[in-house]
Input
Amino acid sequence: MGDTERLVKKAAKNLYRVLEDPEFWTPEFCRTFFDWYDVEAHENPNSALVRGQLALELAGKTGDIHTMAKGHGLMATAYRRDAIARAGGEIQAALKLAGSCPCCLSDIYRRLGGILLHQQNFVEAKDCLDKAIAAYRELGDEDGIGRTLVSRGVAWWKLGEIDAALSDERRALHLLVPPTPELFYLAALTNQAAFLATGEQRHFVQAEPFLSGVRGQLAGIRGITAVRIVLSWIHGLVLARLGDRQRALQMLRNTRSRLLRRRQDAEVVAITADISNLYCDTRKYRSIVDLVSDSLSRLGDVSGTRVLLKNVLAAAERELDETRRRLAEVRNAVAVSVPTLNTCPTLSSVVTP
Ligand SMILES: [Zn+2]
Output
């Protein structure tokens, strides 16, 4: 067993031990810990901030400038969901420590590109990710290039360039090999599924077989519930677009239950809108009222969507055509990792670790 591997096992038994025992205070262990963090933050988004703080504190213990710069970059990613101003502050702190070091700058640009994607600044995001790739290339860091391509594919897609987007994700698949966490590879697969699902007919015809293939490929892998949920959500939307309403509804409702159990509230709001849209197609307003009421009774005010959900309810109760517009308002108010279907791609969002 390698030394890092032994330390990872030790840290897993009690996470806070990493701040107490100097054995953990090395750049090598931090690199592994940061990777672990990225995977965990994706799987358990609700604990991302607390664990991000832990990673940053650990970075400080090493006294290594490069590790500390990357720690601030990681913390910026942790803040992107709920505290965007703080994310900016962390990027500034990271840049200050980085100076002109390409090993730090590549990492910071990659993180910043992901944050800009989250803020829907797609042109800036792509520029930033281009810079990250150039810096990684200078270092000969293929793993870094692969990780960045996963995000740049999303930027291309948002800019309406689906072929360029797919090409980035496919190139990423070749570069993302162990010990890179599997999550990045899975994100490249998930993104391709989303791009195909929302693309033109020539893309869309590949979506169903691609999704079935990926879900088969994942059958034996453990601990990737979040990825599996995203894929089944996209699959449900694809089935809906194919006209297989019954299977689509079943898959989406099932996905919604899993999201409820995991307390992924923003996602519950979004999928409630997606399912309601399907009901809208056949004017099943009663089902929309039931579903939206259920969401209102279980959730708090997620990103100010409570009033928007009530608007949906009011429109659906009176069986008004405006229900669909009200649903779009709900869907656009939450940032989630699954795109809306049958809408302009620039309104939606996709997975970026
Ligand atoms: Zn550096």
About this structure: The mean pLDDT is 90. The first helix runs from residue 3 to 13. Residues 66, 101, 103-104 surround zinc ion (CB under 6 Å). The domain at 192-353 is CATH 1.25.40 (Serine Threonine Protein Phosphatase 5, Tetratricopeptide repeat).
